[in-house]
Amino acid sequence: MEPSPFSGHSVDTYTEGPPRQVPGFLALHRMTTMLLAERMPPNGRVLVLGAGGGLELNAFAELHPGWSFDGVDPSADMLRLAEQVVRPHAARVRLHQGYIETAPVGPFDAATSLLTFHFIPRDHRLETLKEVHRRLKPGAPFVMAHISFPQTEPERSVWIARHVAFGAPDGTDPAQQESSRRAIATKLSVLAPEEEEAMLHEAGFSNVSLFYAGLSFRGWVSYAH
């Protein structure tokens, strides 16, 4: 699997990015915990894939003081940032550097992966989902949200342009926006929404439901068999 794109300066500025780039970013965290809480015990254990930066870990921990968390991320720099962000809740958070194979075997009461899967190459996506599924108790919820839009033209190019336009600060240089469009088109692993749902089913999840859609981002909740 490819190395994490987050290191150096990109880590220093990370916490500024998602709230600006992701529609309803804070609400996404609240919706995620609400969906998990439907089936989780008050002292439940959550697996967080792509936990670097610590933003969702911190939000989850603040909303549910009885939950504990195992966070996994390939970037050592991002995990160091996560340590700082979740410091008030450090006793309930364990961080692991690596990919899903590095995660404890569980079984977990729930799992999440927010703003992560579009960085996972397509040929690793199904196995990653299967590894998440193997670590969940039967009936446990899994929430994932990331970039997903149609992959046929001209729709694909239209959605890429919308994504860049929404996340660009006022006054962003047109050349910089064009560079962002090229990066999204060539460096991210973006699937169409129907492909995402089919892959969740193939990995063993059931009752797959779309709960969030914000421009180029989609979010689903599903459940381990």
Question: Tags for this entry?
Answer:
225 residues; alpha/beta; seven-stranded mixed beta sheet; 7 strands
Topology, element by element:
Blueprint (H helix, E strand, L loop, with lengths): L8 H4 L4 H5 L3 H13 L7 E5 L5 H9 L4 E6 L2 H10 L7 E5 L12 E5 L7 H13 L6 E7 L7 H13 L6 H14 L5 H10 L2 E10 L2 E8 L1
Helix pairs in contact: 3-4, 7-8
Question: What does this 3D model show about the protein?
Answer:
It is a single chain. The chain has nine helices and seven strands. Strands 3-2-1-4-5-7-6 form a seven-stranded mixed beta sheet, with helices on both faces. The two termini are 27 Å apart. Helix content is 40%, strand content 20%. Helix 3 (25-37) crosses helix 4 and helix 7 crosses helix 8. The model has no long low-confidence stretch (mean pLDDT 93).
Structural class: alpha/beta
- Spatial shape: globular
Strand line-up across the major sheet: 3-2-1-4-5-7-6
The biggest sheet, with number of strands, parallel, antiparallel or mixed sense and barrel status, is:
7 strands, mixed
Mean pLDDT: 93
Low-pLDDT sequence parts = none
Distance linking N and C termini: 27 Å
Backbone CA Rg = 17 Å
Number of helices: 9
Give the assembly state of these chains.
single chain
**Which band does the percent of strand residues land in?**
15-25%
Helix residue percentage: 40-55%
Please trace the helix and strand order, writing H or E for each element: HHHEHEHEEHEHHHEE
How many individual β-strands?
A: 7
Could you write a compact summary of the structure shown?
The chain has 225 residues and is of the alpha/beta class. It is 40% helix and 20% strand.
